[in-house]
Amino acid sequence: MIFILLLFTFTTVFSIEKTQFIINLKVPICKNCVYFKPYKFDGKFYDLGKCAKFGKMDIVSGVIEYKYACNCRTNNDLCSFNGTYYEERKHENITLNILQNE
Known about the structure:
By secondary structure, the chain is of the alpha+beta class. It contains 3 helices and 3 strands; from the N terminus they run H-E-E-E-H-H.
């Protein structure tokens, strides 16, 4: 009985290690969208990036305050999870495109 239990446990762990599940693999990535405006301080803080598709203009100064991209992707009235307004950024240099996808 103990041998069967150990064999089952080993098989289960071994099977889990060989299978890889990546969630959200097929949805568009904001950083590859034409509307994505990265955070100016450092390009690594994608959560602080903004979406140039959605925002509000101050009627006095004319300054536009864009919404955060992560908020747009979690709001069904804006871009939503599926990236309703996503438009892929076209790169002339394919190397740049590969580096941005990493």
